[in-house]
Amino acid sequence: MPGLDTGNTAFMLLCASLVMLMTPGLAFFYGGLVGRRNVLAIMMQSFVSMGWTTVIWFTVGYSLCFSGGAGGVIGDLNKAFLNGVTLDSPAALNTSVPELVFVVYQMMFAIITPALITGAFANRVSFKAYFLFLTAWLLFVYFPFVHMVWGGGLLQTWGVLDFAGGIVVHNIAGIAALASVLYVGRRRIADNVPHSVPLVALGTGLLWFGWYGFNAGSEFRVDATTAVAFINTDVAASFAAIAWLFTAWIFQKRPSFIGLLTGAVAGLATVTPAAGYVSPIAAVIIGIVSGVVCYGAVALKNRLKWDDALDVWGVHGVGGFLGIVMLGLLATTAFNPNGTNGLLAGNPDFFFKEVAAVVASSIYAFVFTYGMLWLIDRVTKVRVDEQTEDTGLDSAQLGEEAYVGAF
Question: d(Cα 160, Cα 329) in Å, to the nearest integer?
Fold first, then answer.
């Protein structure tokens, strides 16, 4: 294509590959946290998203997100089946990169977002219900918010910013997780002891590694802002991990490896919307605040006895919400001339827009997810029966076991 920048194109293909790696990383992270009787079931939910979400994205998803619908809630079907996406069509965000690269990069975001929710209802949702949930949630929650925030829709037109997915990925997934937990109910067997901490550590490492592509790649070119997003990602994750570690140490009287790993993920989720719009010092603040606040959210969840098995709401829902609020506070054009200033830099209007947007996204994601689960329950039972739950989903639903004869 004319004007092709091979450096930017190669960088974005690398970033797409890194984001793809995050979904297997999530599978390992969640797989290690559950009991050994449900490892394959929860890992399969992530891998199924890799396959089925790609099918939906290719057929209608990309078009609904990034075709037509200017200033609206959803796009049109003009680019269904990638109609009109040719070798010569440029990406809207950077005309020196092929549109095909943008298609595949955004597809990786679509794959991991619904997979995040699965940690909340671990061990108790049937595979058939999950498949219907995955389909409907993409079509009626994820795609509209992608369009509204990144595809020229309502929120983007209004002036809302979200660098890599505070609203679009983490907030709506985490709030959907809370709705799922409240609808499905508590597990019969409180399987709260991770069966493999090394698997959790492996998953965290893959997520952290992939997150550089997730955040830095959202600049969609290689420039100084790309470097800002990269370092902010690492700084926030590191400070959040240590903040969570010491907070847990104070209240639980001992350090926790799981706490350290969970804190890192909380920092990564929280800095995501702000990564390319704030200074590294601001990223330090975001990391510390997220480590403490997300720890508190998980503690509150435990006190309220919400059975969010793998703390999706506390880490991603609260982290995404907090990240958008912190973006509204700390954004500065000194580190991204194409961004804007936040409240502390004298722009209260932007702060209130960010807060209003994330409150609205939280309400919509909760109400729709809860109602959608109710409708799916009319078609097929969402929750597995007691015998299946007692036996474990691996053998009862998949006829497979992760550790045959190992224990």
Answer: 13
Catalogue all structural domains in the chain, each as residue range(s) with its CATH number. 6-398 (1.10.3430.10)
Q: Element (H or E) spanning 331, and its range? A: none
Identify which of 36, 14, 28 has the alpha carbon closest to the alpha carbon of residue 265. Answer: 28
Distance separating alpha carbons of residues 248 and 258, to the nearest angstrom: 10
**DSSP-assigned beta bridge partners for residue 383:** 125
43: left (phi over 0), alpha (psi -120 to 50) or beta: alpha
Q: In one letter, which amino acid is 211?
A: W
What is the signed CA dihedral for 324, 329, 334, 338, rounded to 10 degrees? 40
Q: How far from 401 is each of 110, 196, 394, CA to CA, in Å?
A: 29, 15, 6
Distance CA 172, CA 98 (A): 29
pLDDT of residue 405: 67
Q: Are 187 and 26 contacting, i.e. CB atoms less than 8 angstroms apart? A: no
Tell me which residues of the chain have a pLDDT lower than 50: 407
CA distances from 95 to 6, 32, 89 (A): 12, 42, 8
